[in-house]
Hints:
- There is one protein chain.
- The relative contact order is 0.15.
- The chain is α/β, with parallel strands linked by helices.
- It has eight helices and 15 strands.
Amino acid sequence: MNSLELKQHGIKIGDGEKLVVMAGLNVLEDEGLAQEVCAELKAICADLDLPYIFKASWDKANRSSITSYRGPGMEKGLPMLAAVKAKHGVPVVTDLHEAAQAEAVAEIAEVVQLPAFLVRQTDLVVATARAVAAQGGWLHAKKAQFLAPWDCANIISKSREAAPDVQIILCDRGTSFGYNNLVVDMLGIPEMKKLGVPVTMDATHAVQLPGADPRTAGASTGGRRDGVSVLAKSAIAAGANGVFLEFHPRPDEALCDAPSCLPLSDAKELLTTLRDIHGVVS
């Protein structure tokens, strides 16, 4: 596997490189909160000598209910991400949902994420791969909940057919297991790495219980917050090159996926442990 690099930030990902941390908010709530979370996580990662990329979505388009909070939208959200970048000097990762959004998102985000449910949508994959390649960024493709790890070869080939030079990372976020449940097969991490690309673990979304939040009688997604650290540590031990995590200063008040979100106060201890595990297995 060849390492990938964000040259403008000197960040590399791949075997033999430092553990890459993509972490932040599930969804943008306001700029002040984004600045606060980025500042804290950047400081922690700097202290631990870990490459850091700030994460936040500007739109969560696949909510269980039409009344669920989706975010500020692209017109307001992308400037928020740009403001975080300008103040803290870190790259950002965010997602998109439509092909027409690709160029605008790739101009702001060094790492553009294909959502799991949309990772087989050809028009979206093609547009995103071309936009990301034009900017020299990374395409962060989440393995769909319904795909086997080796089926991700089709995501890679489709992206490279559209943009031969695109830099691709695969991300595991669990597999559907019956109703309202996800599981993570850690053997999938090395299987995806066999495809020749770096692999990350989205430990936050992997603990979701889709459509099973008892607080809303199934009108939102539940989660098992205590499982995030278990999955993150296991994935790094299995060889993951990066970790994808979501934090909030007051997780129970988070406007999206609160049951899966970690307290910001837990970030340093968890990231320290993940760094140490990575140091042993890398």
